[in-house]
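From the thread on structure requests for the teaching lab: each student submitted one protein with a one-line request. Submission from student K.M.:

"Model RDD family protein from Ollibium composti, tokens only."
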Amino acid sequence: MNARVLDGEIITSRLDDARAYDGVRTRRVVACLIDYLIVGLLTIPFAILVLILGLLTLGLGWMLFTVLVPAVAILYIWNTLGGKDQATVGMKMMDIRLDRLDGAPIDGMTAVVHSVLFWAGNVVLTPLILLVTLFSDRKRTLHDLLLGTVVSRADR
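Reply posted by the TA:
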């Protein structure tokens, strides 16, 4: 257990407590499914705007459909995971959050890179992403290891 001394008092991080990782794998999967649903729902009003823009520009605006879902997802991740709670809506519902191991808060760019690595990893290495959690400390995934982050229970 990592401990540090601050003004003569021993301080331990909540990330050092093994209970902070109980059920994290399952909670991450459910949170991911909830977030996919939310991004899908958020895409609908933007799709309507792109449809109207396409009509106004004689079809040129419809090219935005190619980047619509990723753009909505990135905005969603930037504003939720990169926000003060360090969790998406799905993660909040599952009582988990993303933390950096160095103790710094998650910023929007780190949140987006974390998610892009997750999506890219799933395209190429789907089984490996989840298998890594079985053998890594703190049930960290491959993209967690690359970015120095960890997902933990927010309630512990």
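TA comment: The two ends are 16 Å apart (CA to CA). The chain has a mean pLDDT of 89.
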